[in-house]
Amino acid sequence: MNYDIIVIGAGLGGLFAAAKLAKEGKKVLVIEQHDRPGGCATTFKRKEFTMEVGLHEMDGLDASDLKVKFFKDLGIFDEVEFLKVPEFYHFINGENEFTMPHDPEKAIELLITKFPEEEQGITSYFQKLLNSKKKNIDADHVEQNVGEYLDSIISNNDLKLILLGNLGYFHDDPYSLSLSYYTAAQGRYFKGGGNFIKGGSQQLSNYMVNFIKANNGEVLLNTMATSIITDNNKAIGVTYKPKEKPDTETIEAFADEIIANASIPAVANNLLPKKHGGDLALQCKNMPIGASLLTVYFGFKKSLKDCGSKYYSYFVYDELVKSQADILPNNKGDFKNRSFTFVDYSQVDSQLAPKGKSVGAVCCVDYPKDWENLDKDTYKAKKEKVAQIFINKLEKIIPEFKDNIEYYEVGTSKTVGRYILTPECAVYGFAQTPENVMKPKIETIENLHFASAWTKIGGGFSGAIYSGYLCAFGILRKRS
Question: Structural domain tally of the chain?
Answer without folding.
Answer: 1
